[in-house]
Give the backbone structure.
Amino acid sequence: MNSGNYDLMEKYMLSCMDDSAHDREHVYRVLYNALEIARNESNVDYDVLIGACLLHDIGRREQFEDPTLCHAAVGAEKAYRFLVEQGFGADYAQQVRHCIQTHRYRKSNPPQSLEAKILFDADKLDVTGAMGIARTLLYKGSVSEPLYSVMEDGTVSAGEGDTAPSFFQEYKYKLENVYDCFQTAKAADMAEERRHIAAEFYQSLYREVNVSYQNGRDELDRHVTCT
């Protein structure tokens, strides 16, 4: 990819990004992860891969404003229109569109091309390990969702089976299971190196919360009497 085309796509990407958890630095990490993964693959179309990485989250604003929308679907169409309008070939624009359409964590629309699989893996790597924990907490705070839910019996839910959103629910629903979804061997190895960091954080936080609730309720019962 020549520098002029890179700068054009980067400028457009920057104009679309205003989500703290999916910001420009997330895009760059995805791009850099993708390039590292691609080094272990053959016949990668780097023009398609770089373009798809730069533009993969340009539909986030629309999804944030209307949660019924899928940012991958919206972003894919925005990217296609932008590329065609800027003089890129329709075949190139379609390849980038496919990568963006299929990068989201959804079993119903898996990536097919090599470049799409690499983008999928690079994006998922950014929700593993310490970075995945940090980004999830950042997002939950931005939308005013809690760390955890408290069940009817007064105990803290571990997140399993929760319908109400929380950090613990997101960990059990997505962060804990993302390690089984990678499409390339290199990305799977990179993710596995990070797995224990996320697990230890979740387990430590859950233990700390539970101790506070268990001990605190017992102490409260000692000091608050029925009248």
In short: The radius of gyration is 21 Å.
